[in-house]
Amino acid sequence: HSGLSEAFRVDQWRRIMVGEVDIVVGARSAVFAPLPRLGLVVVDEEHDPSYKQEGGLLYQARDVALYRGKLAGAAVVLVSATPQVTSCFSAREGKYRYLKLDRRVTPQTLPEIQLVDLRTQRGDKSLKVISRPLLTALAEVLRRGEQALLFLNRRGYARAVFCLFCGQVFQCRHCSVALTHHQDQDRLVCHYCGYTEAVPERCPLCQSSAIKRYGVGTEKVEAEVRRLFPTARVARLDRDTAPNSGRALKVLQAFAARDLDFLVGTQMITKGHHFPQVTLVGVIAADTSLFFPEYHAGERTFQLLSQVAGRAGRGAAKGAVLIQTYQPDHYVFQTVQSQDYESFFQRELEVRRQLGYPPFTRLALIRLSGPIEETVAREARRLAADLENLRMGDQDLRSRVRILGPAPAGLTRLQGRFRWQILIKSCGRAPLGHLLQHLRRAWTPPPRSRLSLTLDIDPSTLF
Fold it and tell me: What does the alpha-carbon distance between residue 385 and residue 409 come to, in Å, rounded to a whole number?
């Protein structure tokens, strides 16, 4: 994995190639390990989005594993309690063999999941982040000498800072995102490029001193928990408090040793941890991921909440999960509460069928980026028109392919470069391949434009 030194990786690679190693365990890049007698590939947590390499060479490690297995005649096992909708669909279509575990490995019962409707909590001005039901549950955990996890997948203290007088939102100078306030540093930080600046005392546009912080992150949750429970031992685990694996391990070891009562964290606290004394998991803002502008936002939310819920009740005592949401009737939250993957799968499948998203189509995302937005937009429009002309001139492409865009990317500016994109939907691999082969032959960047083009097949994000 990337945490190993170059020399160590080379030595490990050599040992694998000459047959000194029978089993390789690793992260995404381990899928390329040159085992000479490959017989089995296991992709654990196959739904995890980190299997997609987003920078440099774009690849999906899960798909590479399937292809390597096919070439070597090896078995490939995709393992997940919440499989990808596309993987489950392939199994139902007979492309994969579907095996289901009917019993839990341990005898513990599943935790009870409660949805907290935040619309009914608005009148309680004393509670800014923690609802009354969650507050009561945390107090009971503390009284019994047990532990609790509090999950919010957003770092910082406040997700945005703005001027109440003129509405100016303080944004990154290099990316089209609001800067996040980190109170422990008293700085505004961009989580995409790392740009940072001091919190202004006055608005640079109107000179008003009415500067307001909006939203919540893990830092604010930690502060609120400390305010509500001054005697509790509280820690936070995110990329700010644990920028490397060593720091993260120390926090996790302290929690496992019961030196802490409450642990607040991002996705880092959800994956594979076994804490027998955790009897309560609180999800602070479940709606955050559900309404992200991605077609698979519902799927990601279901997987994430199911995963974090699984941290509760792993010991002798029964676990409980409280999910705070403004949309308790949404099918994602309803199926998480009932812990019913099959019902979620059927509902999600119907949504995608109606909207024409995978597994019913193949997607390709063409993204153009450059330092001058007008140049990027102009070239994106020209390229989209060229592809549309090709599509209209071919009867098969006209009936099986849709070209959407061009349009600015969800994150329009990233690290000083403007980004526009074109989304291609295709009913099958062949027509998509035909269109993209034309793209490879036809497109070259205009002279001195400093434009770059990225082609992402089966993109994991459209943002």
Answer: 18
